[in-house]
C-alpha cells in the first residue's frame, strides 16, 4: 500500500511520501536505543513536564490536526476535534498520576520475613525501545494512549502508523519534539508493512504494541514470539449491545445510534450486534431504525455531517459484500443497504440496519467495519448471553437493564474485556482497555497499561544472621 494522503470523500490523492530506506531506519533505531539509555534515568517530574508540554501544544493545534485527520481518513471533523482533546486529557492524566501508578510495591512484613529478607519490594523499570504499529481509524488517540504511559514509564517509542495517515503520523513526531522531548524519544517511521518484521527482530527493539486487524496481530505476535519479546494486541471486535425488558428503551435506542455509527462505524469498540429481548424488540427496532435513518451523510469537513465516507474504497467494497451476502440469504434492510444517491465520488455507504440475521450469513460472525447494524430477537437472559458470546471476538459489550440479578449474570458470563451497563462503550484514561479471545491480549490505559511495558523487578535484601543463634 502506498504511503499517501488520499481524501476518502473524493478519492483524490493529495500527497504521497517515500518510504524510509534501510539506512534511515537503522539511524532511527540507533537513535532510539541511545536515547533510552539516558531517558530511562530521568525523574518523573521531568517526564511529566515534557508530557504536559505536549498536551498544551496539542490543545493549541486541535482544530488544525482535526482537519488533517478528517482529510486523511474521513471522520466527521467535530469527532476529530474531540479525539484530539481526548488525547490532551490522557496526556495530562498520566503526567499527574504516573509516579504514583509506578511507585514501589511493598509486600506484607510477614511475607518479607518468611522469604528470609530484611527488606523486599517490587520496582517497575522501563523495557526500552517499543515499536507501536497503529491503525488509521483513531490516528491520534490510538497512538497517544500508548505513547503517554510508555514515555512516562521511561520507555521510548518508534511509530509505524497506517500508510493512509502519514501527515498525522509526522505531526505526532513533531508534537513530541516541539514539547522538548530529546531526539530519539519518539520517532515516526514512514515504512510499509513489509518493514515491520526486520524492525521487530532488531535486538535493540524490546517490545511491540499493535492495534489493528486480526491478521496483522497474528503476524506481529508470531514474530515477537519467535524473538521472545513482549507484545500487547488490540484487535477486532463485534461488540454486542443487549437490551432487556427493564431498560429505558428510548434512551437505549438513541444511544445505540451513536454507539454504532461513531467514527463512521469504523471503530473496534462500536456496538455492532444489537440483541434485544422480544418484549421490547419492536419498540427498540422502530426507534433505532428511525434514528439511523435521520443521520446526515456527507462531507466530513461540514460541521453538520453525522457520517462521512469509509476510509478506503476496499473498506466499502468489503462492507458491501457482507451486506449483499446477508440480504441474499434472507436478511432485511430496515434502512440503508446500499451507497447513498448523489455521491459519484468518495467512499460513502448509507447507514444500515439489518434484521432477520442468521448464523448462515457472514455478517453473523465477521466484523462489520462501517455503519451497518445487525438486529437479533431473544427470549431471555440465557439466549442473550449465548448469542453475545457467539463470536470469535471479545473486546467489549453493552447491556441495558435495571435488574440487578441480570447485571450479575452478565458480568459473570460475558466473554469480553468490558461490560458497560446503560451506556455505550468508551475508553477513558482511568479504565483498563483491551479484549479476550481474538480481540487480543494485554491492556492499555490506567495502571494496567503503564505497567505493560515495564519490568516488574523484585528487590530483595537478605536478613543479617542472628548473632545469638549463629
UniProtKB/TrEMBL annotation:
<protein>
    <submittedName>
        <fullName>NADP-dependent succinic semialdehyde dehydrogenase</fullName>
    </submittedName>
</protein>
<dbReference type="InterPro" id="IPR016160">
    <property type="entry name" value="Ald_DH_CS_CYS"/>
</dbReference>
<dbReference type="InterPro" id="IPR047110">
    <property type="entry name" value="GABD/Sad-like"/>
</dbReference>
<dbReference type="GO" id="GO:0004030">
    <property type="term" value="F:aldehyde dehydrogenase [NAD(P)+] activity"/>
</dbReference>
<dbReference type="InterPro" id="IPR015590">
    <property type="entry name" value="Aldehyde_DH_dom"/>
</dbReference>
<keyword id="KW-0521">NADP</keyword>
<dbReference type="InterPro" id="IPR016163">
    <property type="entry name" value="Ald_DH_C"/>
</dbReference>
<dbReference type="Pfam" id="PF00171">
    <property type="entry name" value="Aldedh"/>
</dbReference>
<dbReference type="InterPro" id="IPR016162">
    <property type="entry name" value="Ald_DH_N"/>
</dbReference>
<dbReference type="InterPro" id="IPR016161">
    <property type="entry name" value="Ald_DH/histidinol_DH"/>
</dbReference>
<comment type="similarity">
    <text>Belongs to the aldehyde dehydrogenase family.</text>
</comment>
<feature type="domain" description="Aldehyde dehydrogenase">
    <location>
        <begin position="3"/>
        <end position="459"/>
    </location>
</feature>
<keyword id="KW-0560">Oxidoreductase</keyword>
<dbReference type="InterPro" id="IPR044148">
    <property type="entry name" value="ALDH_GabD1-like"/>
</dbReference>
<dbReference type="GO" id="GO:0004777">
    <property type="term" value="F:succinate-semialdehyde dehydrogenase (NAD+) activity"/>
</dbReference>
